[in-house]
Amino acid sequence: MEFLPYTIKWLEVILRWGHVVFAILWVGNSFLFNYLDNNLNKNITSNDVDGEGYLMHSGFFYKLSRLKTSPPQDYLNRLVIFKWQSYLTFVTGMLLLVVIYYYNAGVLMVDKRVLLMPPSYAIIISLLSLIIFWFIYDLLCKSKLIENNVLFISTAIILLAAVSFGLTKLFGPKFAILSVGLIIGTNMFGNVFTVIIPNQMNIISSSKRGEKFDMSLSLAAKQRSIHNNYSTFLVLFIMLSGHSSFLVYHQYNWLILCALAVITGVARHYFNLRGRNIHRLYILISSIIALIVLAVLVLLFK
């Protein structure tokens, strides 16, 4: 075996392993903190504590408190900030994109049965899709539309359908579906890199100066965190979609993806409500029924 192909194979193995590990850590953090925000006891009277609760792990009890004010200066210097999981998931994902798909663009990205184009054009379109749709999503989040959940979600679903359909007219089915995951994953990383972490650092800086921090920064960061939380099920499905060829290569693959986005979002909503001790079992049941209906439709229209 030649040296370069052999090296690339090892690089691919290491990047795949790292990408999965970092994604697990990132998703785990997202689920944990959203669960805590929903499940902490808010019925307390305190000038400093906004919510509190208790956990048990490995035989020990842990007391958790969400503060209204900054912790002591000594603790500010020792804060644990969860950011590298997101950063490294994105970096390893982009490197995998380059090593596997961009390196073999003529075979894995360009499908002559869909659209014949030079591999370099396919790579440029792929990169532009990540950049353009991040700016579109970011603008939507900063617009008045974000104040109306129904309109924002409806707009997001329409955009997802348009993007998914459009990509299937540019790339082969497998890379088209993967590209949707790349766009959503890039948006999730963008939320962390451009909003969540900068806002957190701004709050920490204000606290170190003894100033009252801007609560709007906390709310904006939490809003983007919730968006990431609802996106995780769909992104994880797309990460594993290579094992679901009967869906990826279906003639209505883009529509199936949109349906799965709604179904997984509804399922995620059930668990988020459950974390707030709001039990709406019909939400989970409806998502399961919808998945069964989707499976039947996929079979009928294959």
What does this 3D model show about the protein?
The protein is mainly alpha-helical and 302 residues long. The protein has one domain. It has eleven helices and two strands. It has a two-stranded antiparallel ribbon with strand order 1-2. α1 (3-39) crosses α10. The longest helix has 37 residues, at 3-39. The model has no long low-confidence stretch (mean pLDDT 91).
Question: What are the defining features of this structure?
Answer:
single chain, 302 residues, mainly alpha, two-stranded antiparallel ribbon, 11 helices, globular
Short structural summary:
The chain has 302 residues and is mainly alpha-helical. It has helices at residues 3-39, 73-76, 84-102, 105-108, 119-142, 149-168, 173-208, 215-239, 245-248, 253-275, 281-300, and strands at residues 49-57, 60-67.
List the helices and strands and how they pair.
Layout: H1 3-39, E1 49-57, E2 60-67, H2 73-76, H3 84-102, H4 105-108, H5 119-142, H6 149-168, H7 173-208, H8 215-239, H9 245-248, H10 253-275, H11 281-300
Antiparallel strand pairs: 1-2
Shape call: globular
- Overall strand count: 2
Mean pLDDT across residues: 91
Order of helices and strands: HEEHHHHHHHHHH
N-to-C span = 41 Å
Backbone CA Rg: 21 Å
Strand content: 5-15%
Domain count: 1
Helix content: over 70%
Q: Give the count of helical stretches.
A: 11
How would you write the strand order of the largest sheet?
1-2
Largest sheet: 2 strands, antiparallel
Structural class by secondary-structure content:
mainly alpha
Low-confidence residue ranges: none
